[in-house]
Amino acid sequence: MLYFKTAGESHGKCMVSVLEGFPAGIFLDKELIDRELRRRQGGVGRGGRMKIEADCVEILSGVRNNITLGSPICLMIKNSDYKIDALPVVTRPRPGHADLAGVIKYGHKDARNILERASARETAARVAVGAVCKILLSHFGIKVFGYVKGIGGINSEKQLEDTIETAVKIRDDSAIYCIDREIESKIVEKIKRAVEMSDSLGGIIEVVANGLPIGIGNHTQWDLKLDARLAFAIMSVQAIKAVEIGTGFDIANKFGSEAHDEIFYGYPKQKKTLTGGFERRTNNAGGIEGGISNGEPIVVRAYMKPIPTLKKSLRSVDLLTKEPVAASYERSDICAVPAASVVCEAMIAFEIARAFTEKFGGDSIGEMKRNYESYIENILQ
Ligand SMILES: Cc1cc2nc3c(=O)[nH]c(=O)nc-3n(C[C@H](O)[C@H](O)[C@H](O)COP(=O)(O)O)c2cc1C
Ligand SMILES: C=C(O[C@@H]1CC(C(=O)O)=C[C@@H](OP(=O)(O)O)[C@H]1O)C(=O)O
User: Fold this and answer.
1) Which of the ligands is closest to the CA of residue 101?
2) Which terminus of the chain has fewer Cβ atoms in its 10 Å neighbourhood, N or C?
3) What is the mean pLDDT of residues 80-89?
């Protein structure tokens, strides 16, 4: 089974992930992984730390001459800001961060012992895993695309209509990773205002996965359902507070006749292979019915809260004296929604790759391809 764990503290030596169950025989292009890592560091609203770090991956195991062996893949990203043992004690917990709940739970007196691991620096390790999973998915024509739908209440109504290749170009030219030129400058202005006000912002992210065939995921058990797994993966990202699949929250307000995607037969040839020939003219379900993919694009949205560390500190209480104090502030992102869109994309890529290997086997890419092709041949009959 495809699985990964991460290790590492924000100001420790490095961030690490170990990915197990990845098929043998796949060329891992380090440049592709590094590109995703660089993208995660960008976007208007990032703080001073991103000027210190220049993330790149070292592949420590699981490959020989850049080809995967089927053994655990260890991915390492060094922290330039390595100084964990010299950092001061934190006793003024920040509302919205893990500081208070963490120190009480673990019996610490210093919130540093919690925040170092709670920090979203950890997401660098996840993005490296996501990039490796995207390489696997590319062998089957599956593309995963994450972008910013809105920040600070300025939200785009624009649907992703272009091909993913075109949308990637538009997004990568955007200072906030959105695909809607009309809202971009307004959002950049709003982030600048948040900086001036010593405040912070959150926003909305959408991830779309194209090319997944019908039949991935499972209806038979609660923890095998693809929609549940994608929601878990997204909710595990720091500061994400809500998830939608397809139409999402708004589906609750509709009549059944408006909500469900009626079934027809006969699709243009290129799409036929994904759906077994069955056609949908709407995609309210976001590509998943009964916990199983239905061949339509997978659509997931994530809602990120504003960053909890504020320059104009929120009210808190000192852990030792129990006196009212201003919450701790050293340095922080003001808005990390663009970065989080890269992380959400990585998590969806991982979870889809995991469900995909469950269906088609994960020992070697050759075996996976044979199984995939034979399945596709069968669903077309
Ligand atoms: C890419 C990214 C960057 C973040 N940067 C910061 C930051 O600079 N300062 C901060 O206080 N929180 C930041 N956060 C959010 C915290 O890590 C998060 O709120 C905290 O770990 C508590 O977890 P929770 O919000 O999921 O409850 C960031 C989150 C992400 C996804
Ligand atoms: C280091 C990263 O994000 C960090 C996430 C983070 C937090 O509290 O989550 C706090 C900040 O770290 P620092 O306190 O060192 O400035 C961010 O920069 C990163 O994304 O690579």
Assistant:
1) 1
2) C
3) 98
Q: pLDDT (tens digit, 9 = 90+) per residue, 174-187?
A: 999 999 999 999 99
For the chain, domain boundaries: 3-379
Ligand nearest to the CA of 95: 1
Give me the interface pTM, i.e. the ipTM. Answer: 0.99
3-class secondary structure per residue, the chain: CCEEEEECCCCCCEEEEEEECCCECCECCHHHHHHHHHHHCCCCCCCCHHHHCCCCEEEEECEECCEECCCCEEEEEECCCCCHHHCCCCCCCCCCCCHHHHHHHHCCCCCHHHHHHHCHHHHHHHHHHHHHHHHHHHCCCCEEEEEEEEECCEECCCCCCCCHHHHHHHHHCCCCCCCCHHHHHHHHHHHHHHHHCCCCECEEEEEEEECCCCCCECCCCHHHCHHHHHHHHHHCCCCEEEEEECCHHHHHHCCHHHHCCCEEECCCHHHHHHHCCEEECCCCCCCEECCEECCCCEEEEEEECCCCCCCCCCEEECCCCCCEEECCCCCCCCECHHHHHHHHHHHHHHHHHHHHHHHHCCCEHHHHHHHHHHHHHHHCC
pLDDT tens per residue, range 333-355: 999 999 999 999 999 999 999 99
pTM above 0.90, yes or no: yes
Which residues line ligand 2 at a C-beta cut-off of 6 Å? 10, 47, 49, 53, 119-121, 124, 238, 330-333
Nearest ligand 2 atom to alpha carbon 118: 9
Query: Pocket of ligand 2, candidates 6, 119, 307, 332: which has the most ligand atoms within 8 Å of its Cβ, to mutate?
Result: 119
Protein residue with least CA distance to atom 22, ligand 1: 97
* 186 φ/ψ angles, rounded to the nearest 5 degrees: -65, -40
Q: Is the CB of 118 under 6 A from ligand 1?
A: yes
Write down the CATH number for the domain with range 3-379: 3.60.150.10
